[in-house]
């Protein structure tokens, strides 16, 4: 097997993942769940992402999702399953993914040979994923693969995203970063969600954010202006490199040429999706 270039898996993930995650910033899923009485944006997100786990309570979701305040999760789970079963939510989620991709990419792209090729490559990559220690990936891996290529790609993107995410959580725990410290340090590095979005969607307060900053300063990871120190930059680099190591299986299985081709194809789709407004303004940044 040809060895992968450095960070090839991460580069591929960075263009595959948006095709999955765009669903949680779009109105399509809320529109599908609204007839069932699920209208709160947090309830929509928790139901949509957790449905593969079954009729779980807040403890499981807080543990698996990692960076949401438990009180927010407990506000919606397990109550949301009284409004719609996990099976109902999964069916709604697939319909929402269908409408989302058709709207963002257009009918021609959805029906293209490039879409079919990307789906085949992404699904092949998922054959290199592993279940142990990865609850969100493992739950999604038990779901059937949709027949339509664009939905098969969305399904594969979900598997690859949760596989990397599960591994990343274990890396954060090993580094001794609590959920908000992980978010603050990521944002300080210029790649994470803006504080505004974190506080609005994860139910932390500005005081919580500032206290996390102080804890990071106490470890020498953040400076007085809220920027990463040299040690902080090194830690964030180590976190990503260790996550790469834990997530190498899918891309080693796909091989260097397949990974490069999947990156090329999904890069074009993601660029088009972002150009069509897949993500809200102000989502990322330090302010």
UniProtKB/TrEMBL annotation:
It comes from the Bacteria. InterPro entries: HTH_67. This is SalK.
